[in-house]
Amino acid sequence: MPPKRTKPHTVGSASFDPDKFFDEWTSERAPQGNNLQTAVIDAFNLKSTDDYVYHAIASVTLPQVQSAINHGASNGMHAWYLYDDAKKRDAPPSADIKAYTDIFLSTTVITKALTAFAANAKKESTRAEVAKHLQSNLHLPPTSSKLALPSKLKVPHKNPYLDYWIWSCQCLEWTGPTPGTAMIQQSHHILPVLYHHFGCVCPTYDALSLVQQVCRGSNKNDASKSIVEVGSGNGYWAYLLRRIGLTVHAVDNEASLWRTTWIGDTIIADGISFLHSPPGPYKELGKGANNAVLLLVYPQVTADFTGKVIRAYEGDTIIVAGTQNTNGFTAFKGETIAEWMARERPEYERIWQIPLPSFAGKDEAFFIFKRVV
């Protein structure tokens, strides 16, 4: 079962090259003001009359998304934070939104940034509630652990998705998740556009670095482990991990369609079958991919997909990027991935949990589970 060889592409663009896209990327190419439509057309070299329909939580075109953005907070479009009586709170200040997005920059240390985010929050403000929520869900290993957060960079790590996400937070007046986020069912027209071009959840420099450390292990003489990403989607995570020198076998059944595809060698297969018995060229992964690291990015809830994949895996490290509350957007309905793993796979210990950039109305995190038995 060799990978399906296709060129990375963006539907409607005559010339999309991921490497060139990254080489030329600067944060200034992200949307300016509220103009998402122009930014996407320019970045992906689309026609000015582009009418592609982005199917996700809703079906929208770029003009429709731009119209929704132009309407701002009207009709409850920015009602992310509510009082107990369901009345909308005042929008968070722009400075608080910036302080939230700064947590995820490669030029900061996430733990220190979270501490500052909390320390400088006004009492009983939305920012204070967000800070408490993020800190309460933070799970770090003991200082003796071989895994560590990376040092902050002097030159920012390139990540176009992160730049788009930072813009979206200011545009939608979003300063991060709270416990009440689990009850939010609405989203915004912007989300399908980000999904189609970049994927369902934004990677960070911290997350990529931790994956790299897990794969390379503590012994520098050991060969680096490869990654099996089941449900790899449009390949954005796989592409970024490959940019830092890791081997990623991206497996997807192509049940979903994407406007932008970042890699050209996705293995079109049922992920569970692939794990049970890696075919031909992937025999070295071992039964249950026991010689590889398992990566699940925004794993689906339906048909017990996440549970079946995890049960099929026989290796020592499971990494998940997805929801950290019980809203049922990823992994399992009514419980978190951490709760399910503790009950169903107690031989794996949760050794890391750090927040990921959360789109408005979402609550995402990065988890590492390590086999201890």
UniProtKB/TrEMBL annotation:
This is Uncharacterized protein. InterPro entries: SAM-dependent_MTases_sf. It comes from Rhizodiscina lignyota.
